[in-house]
Write a structure and sequence with these properties.
Chain lengths: 403, 241
């Protein structure tokens, strides 16, 4: 039957070429589309996590719902040794965030001022890489300011800005700070609202020694993040809580899930069209061969063998198309993972979604490619079910007489 | 029947007038024609406690000037309230900051008093309708509700007032949904000339456990002329030193 199927494939060229080409295009397109979709989502998350968020953060339980200085981590020295002991962490550090009004001579803007350990942040975030002017790890009353904030205040390197806010004991703080460095991460809100200061000086102004808004950590391997977070959570004092990036970036995770969902819906529609075209071509082909199949049945070939013949035909065509489409698709996915497509202006257009670069990389993932391939393979096999059932509805005599 | 109706209406009007009269007298006691005070303010939060001292000058309902004198870190910070607007001068940055309307509900100097409290105390008399809820001995309970179109932030204020000297005992502030937000309590009433003034005021916000602001009036003098220069924007810098 296999040899006969092979002969039929070469004999019915029109149907074979259509099925082969459609399967090839569908499989190739599916693999590449999914790799681009997953790649851009992964890129968005990676940017957001590596720029500043880290892979997990530890807060006092009520901070994220209540906010304010009443819910700070009051004793860093009790918590930080736990991070030191934990294996699998690339880096960790404490941060203290405060909010206030920054003003130049004529302009004001509400900003988030964060006291950070610049040395540790180098390993933890991309703040240093984001430096565009001046120095990164400044000391004293120096600000490392988002370029967007500086533009709003119409100030530059070496200028002074005042900051009015409150210290952690709620006392009034009004200080003049020098701008010693400017950064641009590409994350629109972040660059437009943030400024950083070395922790030592920050603590002296905001009276926040040994306190923090949260402790941020980055793991060596992202896939181990949940496990390490659970390990830390189990050892933390009961008033503290670990938030993994999935919770911290909930809106972005939901956005990517939603985007993937609609992406898959469009692919389903695309596949439905392909599936029906293949099925219709298969059906037309089988309909034209009813007489031939009837003769086969009349000379003693069983119904099952005829079905197997049709199945072999689609199987051979599908495997041949996939044998070409999968390596091609996998290579494309791999190539654009290493050499992402650059679309100038993309980051500007989608900045509010956390897109910080104009690059659109793919994600080369053999498991994803495998399930993409299996899906196309299954759909193709499914497309022959109806034609098989159709042929089985004829007796050999009816089939021979079929016009 | 008609007579009973008229009687009820008259008594309602009488109670309203009495309530408004009480509120006006309390306000007069707190304010005089002019008043100068030296206050100590202790702010207790969940983790910290700190104190500060200030001098205040006010004239009528619409003019007041505050200067922080302690701690040294805050010395010379001045505030001017003029006709419902507010400015602040901060010597360390040598800037005058106008407090925008959006920041009126922010805490004043990290205490549980808001900027709005500093500016709009007069509105208790002008912007709220007073209703006498009851009277037990010399203590009258009055409900203050905003007048239509009054630009106020509270949904309701319920005050307990000692009518012997017309001094406040307790004010409970409710938001527009009727939820209790904070409570002022007043104690240690002292006589200053013809005025009676509680010298200890405490503010307790209900939504911030562990927070308490206590104001002690260390010194007060009423009805003495105040240099009009205090109530101009130039005073912010001039009297900061």
């Amino acid at each position: 039957m296999f040899k006969l199927a092979l002969k039929n494939i070469f004999y019915y060229k029109g149907r074979s070429v259509t099925t082969f080409v459609l399967t090839l295009i569908a499989a190739y397109f599916f693999i590449v589309y999914v790799s681009f979709m997953n790649g851009s989502h992964a890129n968005m998350l990676k940017n957001a996590l590596e720029v500043y968020t880290g892979s997990m953060q530890v807060y006092q339980k009520e901070y994220r719902t209540q906010g304010g200085y009443d819910y700070l981590i009051a004793d860093n020295s009790q918590v930080l040794p736990l991070f030191q002991k934990t294996k699998g962490l690339k880096a960790y550090s404490s941060r203290l965030e405060t909010y206030g009004i920054a003003s130049s001579k004529a302009y004001s803007s509400a900003i988030m001022l964060t006291g950070v350990d610049f040395d540790k942040e180098q390993k933890l975030s991309e703040l240093k890489k984001a430096l565009v002017k001046g120095v990164y790890d400044s000391s004293g009353n120096c600000l490392y300011m988002g370029k967007g904030v500086a533009e709003k205040l119409h100030v530059g390197l070496g200028d002074k800005v005042s900051f009015v806010g409150s210290a952690v004991d709620y006392s009034f703080v009004a200080e003049l700070f020098n701008i010693c460095g400017l950064f641009k991460t590409g994350m629109y809100d972040f660059d437009n609202q943030s400024a950083f200061m070395n922790r030592h000086y920050f603590d002296s102004v905001f009276l926040s020694e040994n306190m923090s808004t949260y402790i941020v950590a980055m793991v060596d391997e992202m896939k181990e993040n949940d496990e390490i977070a659970a390990q830390i959570a189990s050892a933390l004092p009961s008033d503290l809580k670990v938030y993994t990036w999935k919770k911290l970036m909930k809106s972005m995770v939901e956005l990517t899930q939603m985007d993937s969902f609609f992406g898959y819906i469009s692919m389903v529609l695309f596949f439905l069209v392909i599936f029906f075209v293949i099925m219709i071509y298969g059906f037309i082909n089988v309909s034209a061969r009813i007489k031939e199949l009837g003769i086969l049945r009349a000379i003693g070939v069983s119904n099952g063998s005829v079905s197997r013949l049709l199945l072999y035909e689609i199987l051979i065509l599908t495997v041949a198309a996939l044998a070409l489409a999968v390596p091609l698709g996998a290579y494309t996915a791999y190539y654009f993972q290493i050499h992402p497509i650059v679309i100038p202006g993309l980051s500007d257009m989608y900045k509010e979604y956390g897109v910080v670069s104009d690059q659109v990389p793919t994600q080369f993932d053999p498991v994803t490619i495998l399930w993409n391939t299996l899906l196309v393979f299954s759909l193709n096999l499914l497309s022959i079910v109806y034609p098989i059932l159709y042929t089985r509805s004829f007796t050999p005599v009816e089939a021979i007489r079929h016009v | 029947m008609k007579k009973i109706g008229i009687l009820l209406l008259l008594s309602a009007l009488l109670f309203a007038n009495e309530a408004e009269d009480i509120v006006r007298k309390v306000d007069h006691n707190m304010r005089g024609k002019t008043i100068y005070m030296q206050l100590n303010m202790t702010v207790k939060t969940k983790y910290h406690q700190r104190s500060m001292e200030m001098k205040t000058w006010s004239e009528g309902k619409h003019k007041s000037f505050v200067k922080i004198i302690k701690p040294s870190r805050d010395y010379g910070i001045t505030f001017l309230s003029l006709n419902g607007q507010m400015w602040q001068y901060v010597p360390t940055i040598e800037r005058i900051i106008k407090i925008p309307p959006s920041m009126m509900l922010q805490n004043w100097m990290g205490s549980d008093i808001t900027n709005d409290d500093m500016v709009k105390q007069s509105s208790i008399v002008d912007d709220y309708s007073a209703k006498l809820l009851g009277k037990k001995g010399s203590v009258a309970t009055i409900e203050l509700t905003p007048k239509p179109n009054a630009a106020v932030v509270w949904g309701k204020i319920v005050s307990q007032i000692d009518t012997r000297h017309y001094t406040g005992i307790k004010d409970v502030y409710y938001d527009e949904n009727g939820v209790k937000v904070r409570m002022f309590t007043y104690s240690q009433v002292k006589r200053f000339g013809s005025y009676y003034l509680p010298t200890v005021w405490q503010v307790k916000p209900f939504n911030k456990p562990g927070h308490l602001t206590t104001l002690h009036v260390k010194e007060a003098s009423y009805d003495k002329p105040i240099d009009p220069a205090y109530f101009s924007k130039s005073a912010l810098k001039r009297f900061s030193r």
